Every structure is written in C-alpha cells, then in structure tokens.
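Researcher: Good morning. I'm working through a list of sequences from a screen, and I'd like to move beyond sequence-only analysis. For each chain I'm collecting a predicted structure so we can compare shapes side by side. This is the next one on the list. No need for commentary yet; just the structure.
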Amino acid sequence: MKINHNMSATIANKRLLASDRSLSASVERLSTGLKINRASDDAAGMAISSKMKTQIRGLNQASQNASDGISVLDTADGALTEVHSMLQRMRELSVQAANNATYTPEDLEAIQAEISSLRDEIDRISKDTEFNKKKLLDGSLDQRIYPDNRGITRMDISDAVSPNKYVIDIGADATHAQVAGTRKIPAGAVITAAEEGTVSINGVDVKVSEGQTFDEVYEKMREAAELGEVNLLVVGDMTDQTGTPENEGYVPTPVANGGNLVFLSDEYGSSTEMKINCDNPDLAAFLGIAAGDNMSVGTDVEVTIPDDTATFSSGFDSQRTILTDGNYVTITSRNGFEMKFEVTPDTNGRVNLEVTDIGTMTLQIGANENQTVDVRIPEVSARTLYIDKVNVCTITGAGRAITSFDKAIAKVSEVRSSIGAYQNRMDYAVSSLDGTELNMTQALSRIEDLDMAEEMTEYTKYNVLTQAATSVLAQANDLPQQVLQLMQ
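Model: Good morning. Structure tokens for this chain:
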C-alpha cells in the first residue's frame, strides 16, 4: 500500500472531471435547445450553419422586397385605371362631337373643354403619382434613350431592347400631299361671271358664284377641305404681311392681304392622297391652280440601317424589319424587339441612338448579387399618348380624335398589361423565396437544433456517472487511512 500517490483517487477524479464536463455541456445544450453553441461543438456544422443563416435572412428580405415591389406596381396600376377611364370618356366625347350636325360651335367648344380638362388630369396623374415620394408615371422609371439629333422624338421601345448604341440613316423626310397655287390673289378680289365654277377637294364640291369675295370663297373651300381631310392655307411673303390661317381646329379669320393658296393633306406619308379638280379654267387661273385634275401623293420618311462592318455595328439584329408610316418609324426584330419614334421635318443624315437602363426601377428579389429584376414603367402623359393636340371642334378633328384615343387606350392597356406581368412575376417570386427559405430553415434546424429526448438520455447518463464518480472518489480518498491500522 502506498500513501504518496493515491492512484485510485486520481483515476476517480479524472473520471469525475470528464463526467462533469459532459454533464455541463449537456445542461448547456438542454438550456439553449441547440447542438452547436460554440465552434468547438461542431466546427464544420458551425461554418455551414452560419452561411445558411446568411442566406435565410437574405431570402426573407428579398421576399419583403418583392412584396414592396408589388405594392409599387399596385399603385401605378391604380393610377392607370383612372387614366383608362378618362380615355374612355374622352373617346365617348369625340364620338359625340363627330355627330356635329346636331351641335353648334358653342356645343363643340364645351365638349372640347371637357376633353381638355380630362387631358390636364391625365398629365397631373402622370406627374404626381408616386410611392414613398418616388415618381412612377413621369418616365423616370423608364429606360433612357439619347439621340444625337433633336429631330428624333416620341421614342418608345419594348422591354426586349437591350442597352446598346443603335445607328440609323435618314435619307428623306416624310411629306404631305400638296397642291400649291402659283398666283397671288389680291386682297378684296371678287369673283366675276366668267370665273364661276366648281372646285372639288377630295370629292367635296365647292360652288363658286359671281359676286363672292375671295374671303367668302376661301371660307367655303376651307370647310370643304376639312371634310376632305385637307388643310387649306393662304401663304404670302412677309413684306405683304399675309396671314397663314390653318383650318384644323380653329375658327377661321379673313385674310387681309393677298397670298397663294396651298392645299396640304392633314397627314404625312405615302398613304395620303389629294385630288383638286376645277371645272372652269378662268376660276382655276383666279385661284392659281391648273384646270382639271391636280393629283398629289405624300411620301414616307426614308430610314435605313447601315450594314455592319469590321469597325462599325448598327446595334440592330440582322433580322430586323423597318416599317415607315408617314413620319413614324417602327423597327422590329426577333424576340419581341420593337423601337418606335417620330422623325420631325428637315431631319436627315446619320442618327445615333443610345439606349441605357438608367432610370429603371431595380428590385432585389434574391439573396445574392445580381439577383434583380428591372421594372420599366413608361411615361403616361398626354404627349406620350399622342392626345395632346386633339381637337374635336371640326368633323375631321373629331374623327381623328377617335383614332387617337383608340391608340392611347391600346397604349395604356399595353402598359397595364406589362405592369400586371411584373406583378405576377413578383407573386411567383415571393412564393419561390418563401419556399426556399422554408426548406433552408429546415436544413439549418437539422444541423443546429437539439433532439431533446436524445439529449435527456445523455444528461441522465452523465448525471449518474458524475454521482458514481463522486462516491468512488470519496471511497478512494479513504484508502490511505487504512495504513494507520498497520502502524498500530
């Protein structure tokens, strides 16, 4: 027997310490409900769970982002619903004004006043609709197009048009169909008996009689021109101070000084045709036009896309198609690519268009970088809907307004459809994000969460071992006392 080294007590003490450590760890796990409370518990599990926690929190925030995006889109769609309603009302008023046989000029002006008021409200909605002080319908959330020529206006592109530089060549302007008089008519001129006759403007006849003044003849011809979708102007040089009244949408005023008659079709393009006929050579000479038929046809703007070379690219797909209608150009290609714009008079030569995604609303709908959706909401104002100049005070103006409102309604429908598609996409994104977050949380739970029943078994085991080790240690410490009995 030895008294300097009590090996039994030492062994029992070490076992007690080990059991106590295990018991303490078990108590910690039971109190937190987690298997991993420090890196030493499971180094690999700690690294994996930390990364998963990052993803889970990112997915949760992305889901909130998508839900916020839906709220933004709901706000825009609500405003566009009212724009739709106003456009429907404006079209209804245009149809009413087109039946102007039953309305006085004052009635038509009242109808026009309501249309103008609704148009102003559309502009106000376009300017003031916002979400959290962020404008939605003023064009600030649309792609930006930068032409290097001011003659390119009213540009509109589809979502499939990617940011890039695009190049077009404009060879010729669009023109009106035009018949111009060659004789300056003196102020105060009166029709003589020899000059009596009939002038036909696109099939609408005007009877000119002896004794009528030029102002009276001009007024009758202006009304006929309006029915024939033609503008009638009197053009003279500035030294004569000749007026230049245009009939469309305005109350006519007499021309004080002489000038040349000019018949001009309302629309640009090769689809416009004008026919002026005069059955009396003397009347034709008085008006400054040729006797018989005077035919004229307008032309469309000429647009081409330069061929690609080793050092230059137009930016367009090789399968593009160019359609011109008057001074409007539409370029389409595969995969929904569409670019529309208006070419103003006297625009020619090479034009560079740069499309950027500056301005689009970006929604972060993923937990990682570049998991975004760019949302485009174009400007929806009277100007971009091409209804800023509608005037229903004339038959032609009312008819043209109906067509303009049809196109505006179709445009707003297209924008709302696009917004609806974004909303559906966000709904699906929220569902997907929530599902991914749920699955990842379940995986994290398997790594971190404690099986309480299993751990209670471990706790009971270590608790018993600790108590047993304590008892054995007490007995081992009594062994050296037995040496004293040998020494008695």
